Records
---
Amino acid sequence: MNIYRKMMVVVFATLSLFLFKGPVFADQIDQNPSSTTSTTAVVSALESKKESLTDALTASYDELNELKSEVESIKVNDPWDKIKTNLLNQTDKIKDYYNNSSEKLGSENIDQDSIKSLAKELKYFREGVFSEYYKNSINFILIFEEANLLKIADSRLDKISSDLARLEKQSVSKTKTLKTLYNDADKHLKLAHDLNDSAKTLFYNYLNPVKPDETKPEETNQKKEDQISDPQALIRNISHKSLDELKATYDIFINMSKTL
């Protein structure tokens, strides 16, 4: 997914502003105000930083638009449609923030300190607000795109079942072997569904936590004990395991076609 690559472009472009060391700083200009070379160097340093931050913002826009496009393409029903709407609303808010940052960067009065400050703000924004939005969007896309793949696999398995019934009537010699493979595929696909459902439930509960006053005291204490340190990572891990099971299912489909 190109989103990951674009995210790294933004991170490195932003960090470069903190690592940048221009050849001449403001205090050096005061010591030698008549130095044309020093003034040129400062202007060059300023433009370089502005260019780096502009590139970071451009990559951020592209990344945001790609995420929005993928989220929009997912078709869901209630209550997930509300979650989808919330994600898209967050996209617009983040875009507004980037627009304001671009306006600040384009100001004629901006200096090196202002650019460094803006870069710092963007870095914290990405590590906080954007990071949470990004993880939520990726998990949303992953879970529901996988659910669509599972539906396709279900249809494929149903067709194989019908074909096996027909082969059995025709007393095809390899029917027994094919049935064994079919049963294995069925087990992997059911596990893939179970894992996808688990990821979906965890994700929904993460986005809609139960308020303390909605549970009994003993249940609240139990929930604290059951808290997961990184639920987003766990959700992704479960989704990836589901995809592994789905892959195993299709590997068996291929073996079945070779067996015939």
---
Amino acid sequence: MSLEVPSWTIDGLRVIEAGTAMEQIAGAGGDPSSIYGRANKFTCPTGKQAGRAWLLMRKEDLDEIRSDDSANPRALTLRITSGRLSVSFPNLYFVSAVRISGRELQQATDLYLVELADCRIFLAMSFINKTFNVRSTIGGEEDYFTASKNGGSPWTWQQMLDHVWGLLPSLAGAAPSLSGGLTPAENPERFIFRCMSAWDAYHDIAARLGAAVVYRPTTASFFLSDLGTASGGDSGGGLLLEDAEAIDSDRVLIPEKVKVCFPKTYSVPDEIRQTLSACEVREYLASTYDSSLTTCPGTFEVLMDDLEALYDFEETIQNNSEITARAVERGEAFYARRNNNRKKRRVYNGPAAIEPDGAVREVIWRSLGDGTKTEVVNWEKDEWRRERAVDLYQKNYHGCADDDWGAFEEVTVSIHDDSGDTGRNVTCTAIGLAGLAGTHGIVIPVVGMTFPYLFLPDECEPSCGSG
């Protein structure tokens, strides 16, 4: 019996049929369980994790796909054909292989379980050390630290996404574009990515926008899918073999209200007041979004927002209309995503040209010995819960000429009052900080209390004294 399966090939090379391969392994005294349910299969998820293929190949063909003389990794194409149906997946890369049959001496006919992955396996190996639109709290509403601006202007959402994408390896290809429904009315605020993966940073921004980063395996490209409107378009899947219908409870899935929380910021630096101030909180009700939704009374979801609530020292909010609009925007987007996030699992006969989107979180093409199938999966994930927490306990007191925030060091400045009194007004002079030179009153509620500064050593030096 032939082990070759013409319907599965890698760059035209042979892939071995799983059922027959297991028979061969067992007949040679081996353990076929090592490949049961794993080969042959290609799984493509939405999000950070790379799509991966596990294929059975002979040693002679494995050696061919491993040959790589170029500067970049060799891009391979997986092609699956069954009758009139055919689908191809370009730009897959060799990861590893494990021999599952054969003796101590290698033979060209030895079977290997070969692992391939799409370009996302490389994208996590990236770096970012950058801030975007961080307010200095001095001056007007559009006063951001110079180092956090795009030239002399605030970053837009698309510009920020494009900048982060540009830090990824070139295998990522072209940067996705935002659709109108994913673009908030206001610019992004206070995004701080300190010495981390640029791929993680990109997904943090996408999560804040309510988007899924989706890889199209048939074109090796990316797009941003709105989780609130994604259709899960798997209608072109051909003959439906299985449909695991799921019925979700709105009361469990959907809270009665969302509380959108905005960090408070005052018009002049006042570290302790900012530290002790609660957030500005606005509520949005599920019934406002859709009166037909049934919820459990008294349930909430907390959404931290990047937009700062700007207050003066009379405790009057200065950007109330923007805060109100953003709260409505976040509430509507939250309920749209949550209401659209319904469980689904369907299996189609043959290799269907179905791709992930916001409502299809994973597509699996498999041939495990019973013919080629395409499985479409959407399950309850945590993407819509990944709201970026805002650090309310540290303001970045800088303004020095150096725009490289990576050069900053974090220290803690302690203020002590020898008189033993509490609640004394202590003055702090920030030396060398553009726009902060001079003294500013800081109320210290407890003697010996500490608070953080960020400053450039040898250039910016805070000095404090009792007054």
---
Amino acid sequence: MRKIAKICLAVVVVGAVVGLALFGAMINRCTATSAIKDNEISIDGYYLLKESATNETLNITCILYLTNRWNNSGDIRIVAYVMDSKGLAEYRTGVEIGSIDINKTEEVSIPIVLREGSRRIDILIFEDGLLKMKGYIYIDVFYNPNPYIDKEQNDLVEAWNCRITSSSFPSISHPIEIARTED
């Protein structure tokens, strides 16, 4: 009987050791998996570059410096809207970027058409169909049909003037999947 008790005790001890080892391996794997970070997309800078103008529109290029950290990104798509003072979109454009490598910054050019009274440029950044970031650039756009020379600064005051008043590009904490529409 003692021999059977010793065998049973040995089986229980071996089973406990194996169970603890498996439990430890599972915990270690879960911790390692959760330590892998999702990629992080950010806008680290932007510029508005004047391209051309007519009596009705000011054509600019919005240049974004889009940075990806931690992991390769999925397919990136950027949609930009120009909003008027009433909150209505007066212009929309989209740009396909593709993926961005780990710890790389891409220069992205977005053609924009402004009119007198344009107040804000909304920029939406999608990754694999999920809205990851929504930001804005508040602007004041003025048109003077009679350009003149400022005598104090000895400089030509152009017909079109665009001034940035503020901007913000926060990430979205819980990305939202939005159905894609064609441009």
---
Amino acid sequence: MKSFHWFSLYFIVFLCSFDGLEFVTGVGTFRLVHFFAGFCLIISMGTLVKYSKRTFRNMGGYALAVIGFIYLLYGPFTLSYSYYSKGTLTMILGQWCNILIFFYCYSVLTIYPSFYARLPELIISNIKIQSVIILGNFVLLGVGVVASEDRGNGILGIGRPGGFFNDPNWSSMFILILFFFVLYYFKDGRVKRKQVMQVSALLVVDFLFTESRVALIFFLITLYLYFFKPENRNVITFTGIIPVFLLLLLIGGDIKSLLPSRFYYDLLDYQHNPRLNDINNLLTELTFYRRFKYGFGWGALPFIADTYYWRNYSGSINVLPIQILFDFGYTGLTIFTLIFLNTLRKYKNGLLRFAFFTLMFFNIFHMAGYKQFYWVLLALMLFLSRNEKSPIYNRKALPEPEPALAENDEEALAEVA
């Protein structure tokens, strides 16, 4: 089963990128990773149940409590009062599937300690695969084989390649968080500097093609903070460049002529900024129906689709705080804010803490909380954070055979957890 579980973990990470390939059914919209993960869950049920105690203990009470809260909130609780029960039910099934994928990935990593050391292989190869897909997508856009809804943007004005995500922002988010894991293992000594430089070069090309502003900014900040020597690094000076840069754009400086319009168009034209329009629309509905306290319930966004027919509202908008406010009111927004801040505090590793912050920050501009890759990345992030100093997982010599650990290893695992 060990080889099967490694293959399944690798393939789940890969299949996450096929987000644009949808299978619409009467009970919801599903993707390839849902079907494959479901198959893996059925095949592995005996092993997963056998080692469930180890998985839950390794995950920790806080993570289980947060997942349990999300499960109940995005389920029976919201279904009981949503303004749009049909939309809520279909989204609930999709989110529950995502949570099952999260548990499967975390369980597999917990059961087999050697997977901790093998993750760099999985991560780097998937970054390379996604880079090849993005490059191939760009070439197909250029020769006209693939049509783009984004034509006029991107390098050469042929559109922005998003790979099988069908969205350049989500593909950029995916590979950027994977890059954080590469840096984590570089610090751990399991990834060489040459590999980091190769992956960094790939990401520069990827982000130039996708023109994802948030991904590019966070990528550059990460390189600066991670590789510059402390005596040559001034965080305040570097981060201060960003507001100055925005100010130059707003006052119409010549810097605009040096950049694609994609990087600044919605900063200058507020009336056509889709995110600002969404915020205004949702706040208007909350005010009109007086639902600020508890919101409309998750999945209720289609309830206002007829009113704002030109926006084609379906499951969510790209501004997570306002989405939570619309779904659960200021009560839910307060709870989620407290969970975010407390979770951020619990990440002891600075790099993983910044990775978690980046993933959450992305949701302000391009909400991916209902996407499968989002939950897979969270599983990897939590596992690395929980086992960074584990004598069982983060070590060179591993007990054999796996997954059966020696008695002293079980005791050490309990101490860490």
